[in-house]
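Hi R.,

Here are the chain sequences for the assembly we discussed:
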Amino acid sequence: MAKGFSIRARCQNFGWPRDRRAREISRPIIGAKRRFVDHAVGKLLFFAALAAIVAVFIIIVFLLRDGYQIVLETGPWNFLTGAEWNPTGRNPAYGVFPLITGTVLVMALAMVVAVPLSIGSAVFIAEIAFPGMKSTIKPAIELLAGIPSVVYGFFGLILLTDWIRVAFDQPSGSSWLCGSILLAIMAIPTITSIAEDAISSVPREFKEGSLALGATHWQTIRRVIVPGALSGISAAIILGMGRAIGETMAVLMVTGNAAVIPDPIYDVFSPVRTLTGTLGIEIGEVAFGSTHYHALFGVAVVLLFITLAINSAARVITTRIQGTQGTPRSAPPGRVKTALRDSAPHRALATAASRVAHAASAPFGRLLHPRISQRCAFFLISLSVAIVLAVLGVILFEIVVNGAGAISWEFLTGSPRDLGRAGGIFPAIAGTFYLVGGALAVALPLGIATAVYLIEYTADTPLMRSIRAAVDLLNGTPSIVFGLFGFAFLVLFIGFGVSLIAGQITLSLMILPTIIRTTEEALRSIPGSLREGSYALGATKWQTIWRVVLPPALPGIFTGAILSIGRAAGETAPIMFTAAIFSSRFLPSSLTEPVMALPYHLFVLTTTVPGAATQSYGTAFVLLLLVLTIYLGAILVRRRYHRATVM
Amino acid sequence: MTDSTILETTNLNLWYGQKHALIDISLRVPKNKVTALIGPSGCGKSTLLRCFNRMNDLVDSSRITGEILFNGNDIHDPHQDVYAIREKIGMVFQKPNPFQKSIYENIAYGPRIHGVSEKKALDRIVEESLRGAALWDEVKDRLHEPALSLSGGQQQRLCIARSLAVGPEVILMDEPCSALDPIATAKIEDLITRLARDYTVVIVTHNMQQAARASDYTGFMYLGRLVEFDGTTKIFEDPGEELTENYITGRFG
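And here is the predicted structure of the full complex:
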């Protein structure tokens, strides 16, 4: 017998009940306790998931139910194609056509501006930047995705509208053009980041294969890498469109909000009004149960359908890529980032090979020498990065330089006076923490439990797929729709009134889908073999989840939670009708009192209080600092996580 | 067969959804011996292996008929604790799957989930198990480093050590060497031979030389059926079935 080798012989000394010769395999006492815990936890998770899923469906059903009323009252055709939206006139008109047109126009022009710049930036970061440069620019651009929309709106209102008014000699700068430019700036970080992931995940071999044929770097990028990443880039653009359509505050602040169709249709200086902007303006003044109220729900339902269309488009694109791989669990559209390899590059490489061969056989037949066209292309790409960085730099510079001057001890710790023109913003800072803290306290445990239940306890049945689709739908739904739901359901229907608790619940419903989604992603990234390894040692399901699956998934879950905090802290739309008041000297003393919040404070200061520029800048600065710190945290966590898993 | 039997299946059938993956398998696995299961891909070897510790419970679409006895007890008896069965019948997988924990924590995981919390006892189990898997000398100075920093072969021995730590009687190995290089493979094969002194080992392998070298008994499976089961020498030198002979001489597969 080898030295020190007989383990089982020694097991009896280890102090846990073990009789090797026992005829019974089970040890009833430990077994029963363990099974009880396992069972209890399973039940608990089930009820958490049930609660979350019921909440998700309540939102959808509630919106559809009240939105359906307007169809009954005006007829579907009149509602969708009516050319006039004038709910407060003597003869109220509820035609959403101008609003849909406004939304589409603003979004389309924004994409025209954003797409080339974003893709140029993505190509630059993925292919041209030096490693050191890449690791700075990428997180910097991702960080900018976290700037709260009200801060963009603030920038747009005080600077961009002015520039446009002066530069184009217009009576007012609040216009379609201004909204589109602002939305483009907001969509660029999203599109760039996801497109860059797509480009970076094109396998090296394809690039090398092309270079080995004598293609220049630019030819390789154009003919192999970009076509190979095309599905991912399309998905990035679609998600950017989603972001642009869902945006409320920034658009509301700069588009002029006249519910008209531009005449002529290409008049970019015409004011327009979007679907989200309409909700943002009118929810506050609507009578419960009126036709106008139902019409606003109709608008929300239209937004819901647009979100659905965008989700489906992204899903079709991703599943088309994944179709050949036969993944056992359906891939959500959010996974675009990870899902981009495959077939397309093969084809692209083959085409490229033949083209390069042709080109080589006729070197004088070309318009430009490859090296010259490469130089031109790289110049344009670098220019797009420069523009993006310059624009974002200007925004940050403007707010930091002017905002830092407003910061003082009194500003941070005092209460507002004279409608916010003097005094401080302490109640708003504290109120933001109250709102976010409350939202997290509800959404985090519920969301994580739901994700664990969905991933670990359920099979991929049609029911689960529809639950996922519902969660996805809400994940992409514009935040103002949550504002409408919170206002209608919590403030009016349940009767909380405009209160801290209504705001907390609204925000938690808004971030719940995000938390469920990111947690699911994190859990899914833990290989099944680890679970099997644990089961094979006799671990129960819960022991396996708690000790083997959750620890490595934690950074991913954590990142999702941090991003949700940032989102909750920066959002204005969901709280402005549910929780926020402007200018309160005191903090709420109970959950049923309204509360101040930074984003809402900034919004009101900017749009309705003349002569509060310094305070606006100061508030924007504090909000920016708060949210960007949170996002920076998320980026750092993710980086550490990546390094840890690469090993 | 003179050796005493530890695992026994009678008329075992298994379906994955519509697919009839195991057909009428009747087999006796002798105690404290190495039993190899060979056969072409998709013949059901791994499926059979996963029946022994009820890992197929985790596959929703699977359905089983027939009987599996472990030390004379039916493992599908509703009174049996499936977790206790897996504690007694350990498993090592094709690809090393160490948890994302330290080397020490990987080994201590099993005893901990079965209720051992005393540090001294755990230290001892970790050392014994690592010695048992012939890994102790290589890792004794770095027990608290991540298990993923080990090489592939070391990771696989860590997984073997991990299964030893819960004190099993049977160790099931599902192509444990298929992801390893020849040197690491040789070490594992050597280990398997030594493990058979204290444990019963059932190994699924694609590699017929490995079956011939490392096992005492061999079962040849084809299309879900157990074609032949006998002493390894007998199977390789004088197979009773023509199918077996064709397979081991490389005429198909």
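The domain at 5-97+170-248 of chain B is CATH 3.40.50.300 (Rossmann fold). Chain B has ten helices and ten strands.

Let me know if anything looks off.

Best,
T.
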